[in-house]
Amino acid sequence: MLNTKFPGIARESTALGFGCMRLPILPDGKINEPEAIAMIRHAIDSGVKYVDTAYPYHGGQSEVVLGKALKDGYRDKVILTSKLPCWAVQSHEDMMRLLDEQLERLQEDHLDFYLLHALDIDRYHKMQALDFKAFYQDALAQGKIRYTGFSFHDEKAAFLEILEDYPWQMCQVQMNILDENNQATIEGIRRAGEKGIGVVIMEPLRGGLLADPPKEVREKYAAFPVQRSPIEWAFRYLYTMPEIVTILSGMSNMEQVEDNLRIFAKASRESLSAEEKQLYAQIRETYLQRMKTRCTGCEYCQPCPRGVAIPRIFQGYDRSLLRENGSFKEGYEKIVASEADASRCVRCGKCEKTCPQHLPIIRFLQEIRAAVTA
Length: 374
Fold this sequence. Notes:
This protein has helices spanning 33-45, 61-69, 92-106, 121-129, 132-141, 156-165, 185-194, 215-223, 230-239, 254-265, 274-290, 310-322, 329-337, 350-354, 361-373; strands at 3-5, 12-14, 16-19, 50-52, 79-84, 111-119, 145-152, 170-174, 198-202, 244-249. By secondary structure, it is α/β, with parallel strands linked by helices.
């Protein structure tokens, strides 16, 4: 396991972190607790030193299950991160109330990192007005948190403004082969590194799209002199960057845990070759030319008031575009049968306000519906 360090922090981390947003679920949608706990503990036993959750993951149950997994001495082996749901904060007092609620869910007396969750510039200005800095000062003084940070979904200018406003110790950003010039951007990550702010990566596989690439991408990988799986290529793109401390993987079964452990057991900080950089540029172009929505499946848009299964529609459609002669007609018919299709959308806009990718969800829903029902 590749061990890493956050700048200015004594605790050791690892290049692979366990993200608890996509834990295994049962048919009723609840977390499969025994399997999830076994996966988390196996990862920690195998060297993983960083675990990440948040207030809304799995409808609030991610923190509960993670707390159970960290019993029996496992808490002492990891850096534990959770996040303040800024959208739920309406007053300064709400911040400490929510932190206390999360600590109760986790059955812990403190977190290591506590992040302002899913910041865009408007949300950040709201948190400034509610004096999040004084809240952090109090939470640190009371020992309820050890370090501060933020997770981010907006444009580069917003990222740089937030980065410069407070002595952050960590930032969590979306980055992968496809997002080099999107959201925080590579330039923003480098600026964080220059400021001594540790970078944690989310969506390294772009919601799973990079794990199951189209034929053209597989052919490009197969033609390269060094053979790696698509998942390993995706992780390698990130762990060679010196600014990145930890890469979160939202593992959903034990097979994924084992595969990630195998990949990161071989990981090193060596620089990418010119040939590898050229390969990544070709892969990026191939994907972006064929995808429509570029949805990551984060489910921040859920639940829809009308029951529209937005991530299922978007990811299903994008994956059909990436397959040779792919069609989403049959998949969409199943969504219609479950009464979760785009025809139920009443254009209320709630989804677009919460989408961290800032996707034109309403327009995409109607365009996809038209394309698959024609």
